[in-house]
Amino acid sequence: EVQLVESGGGLVEAGGSLRLSCAASGFTFDEYAIGWFRQAPGKEREGISCISRSDGTTYYDDSVKARFTISRDNAKNTVYLQMNNLKPEDTAVYYCNAYNTWGRGTQVTVSS
User: Residue 33: CB partners within 8 Å, gap ≥ 6?
Assistant: First the structure.
């Protein structure tokens, strides 16, 4: 069974940091690119970052560029999202996606 499990969310003050993790199982992890998405209340889910399967090529939406860093550890079947200088507008449920599968998400709340 393919599974993605996000963790690391929480409540943080503006300017703070969090590191999200996405643990994958049930597929050949290092053969797939992995993406992070988020969905704020009342808004559509949006893609914010992704990382290629092999050479580490990364993509960031302008809204998170220079604040968030995506990385992967293929030995641990895990992708990370380091989030620095968090803003209230980063408040959302964060999801990872790979192999056409979504995790359940992890809540990030940034207080002003």
Answer: 50, 51, 52, 53, 98
